[in-house]
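Possible race condition, two jobs.
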Amino acid sequence: MGLVKYFLRIFSKFHVFIFRNTGGKRMNKFGGMPVLILNPIGAKSGKKRSTPLMYFEHKGNFIVTASNGGSDYHPGWFYNIRIVPQTEIETNEKKTTVVIHIADDKEKSELWQILIKINRSYEEYQKKTKRNIPMIVLTSVS
């Protein structure tokens, strides 16, 4: 595992720890965006995984992106949600069960424009990679 990937894994665990142990009062924003904790089931392990992700809300849904910092491969959690498209998320002190779908091209185009108005870093991520960075829609079932 490369040093950057190792650091990101450690930071992610730290981020989740602080978020949970402060009831979402700390580490609830990053890069000017709110943060949620995505808790998908590992496709191979069957274990619950927890990943902090920046998000925005649109039409009552939580929107995240599988940018992986502009790398040429999707983040691990993306593969997990494709296999099990329902999970729990945590926002501040609230836990919510969500169903997940990957935005089609038309929906992605609309969501992408909103995202880059909020955080222009994502434009740079898309320029760095050949893959089409997916936008993911999380819809509350409760």
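Job #2 (started ~2 s after job #1):
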Amino acid sequence: MARLLALLGGNATASALLLARNLLIAHLLPIEDYGIAATFAVAMALVEMASQFGMQAQIVQSPEGGGRDYLAAVHGFQIARGGMSALALFLCAGPISAFLGMPDLAWAYRVLALAPLIRAFHNFDIHRQTRAMRFGPVLLTATSAAAISFIAIFPLAYLAQDWRIMLGALLIQEICACLTSHIMAERPYRVRADLLVWRRSVRFGWPILLQGVVLFAVFQGDKILVARSLGFEALGVFAMGVTISLAPTLVVTKSLQSWFLPQLSRAMGTSAFRPAAVACAQATLLSAIVLCAGVMVAGPVLIDWALGPAFQALGLLLPWMAVQQALRVCRAGMNTAALACGVSWLGAATDLIRALSLPAVWVILSRDGTLLSVVFVAILAEVAGTALALFVGSRRVLLPVRALGPALVVTGVALSGLPVLTLAFGQVWTAGAALLSCGGLLTFSPQLRRILPIRFLASRHSFACQRPAPVTLP
């Protein structure tokens, strides 16, 4: 349990630093300039989308993931992938800038092509260490890069008073992360070309690649449509809302997957798998309620104190955006259990439903729709995706959905009521209702209670009532 809390804390620290960086940039820049800066994230996501093979998950999931030759082959694959990504962004810089209505800024996207090239030379030994539940190297790599990127804003703001601040911060973050990954590695950096490993990586990763394409549509499609239809000022507001609500979502999903995936993979084929999978799903449901309430309580404070009057329109949007992201967290547990079983396509399938909602968003915006209507369409699509995850989880992963029934009902009621309470009565009512919801969920979640601090301190047992066997590293 202490490791899980440390994992959550480390990911939360890195995410908080990146959020603080973006808030500071938004505070320093006019809202239209911040909208332009947000397009750099769109460009980076476009490149990553086209080359995402889930190498970190493969290292954890594969029985060969701890081998030296396997790790060297992964490095070779990563360099090839990063080089192609950088070349693609460099060549597409002109069309991207023209599509977004900024043809004069093509040079900035060409400079940004350095980011995937730098990322290609990370030492993935930090991910190998997570096989033994040692998350310190991964956390330190992410946290140190985020911290230096935040600190760099001050000299960058002195040198440039426009969107170039974000461009410099992104490149500095990639450089620091690459250097730290080598410092924290236990094994020397080796590269080899192994076509057998590469073919297996492609076979494992093609559903994740498909999910990357879908995720680009999910996370960036709305932004592109907003920029094209409503302009960069509206994009600035919308992108900041996504940043505030998405940051804790990524912390929760990344931390829970990093914690549960190694243990679920080891429990595959044993009687411990089902209770572990149920506990994983219950943990994500609990996290969804906490995340949703946290954004609703802290969001107005960030808007008033960090962003100023230019972003006041976020006050109405943010509670509903929090619900949208909380629904993504709800199905993260089912996706993690499926990934442990080798069903890597479930995440792509559920996200595809969200991507298919983009034509509806385009129609709404073309008919003078508002940002709030865009968020409501996204919520409906996320509900449908969560329903699909439950159905597939019960059939392919043999996840006992009936055991999750009461917790699902509590979560659904909470996510439906919290935004109404926030907008009608304020944050105090929201916090109280969230506490009651969490208590109700825990009442119906015996598998989850086994890994909470009270039970943990009493028995020092995991959710399977047994300490996982140590992993012997070569």
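DSSP finds 22 helices and no strands in the chain.
Logs attached separately.
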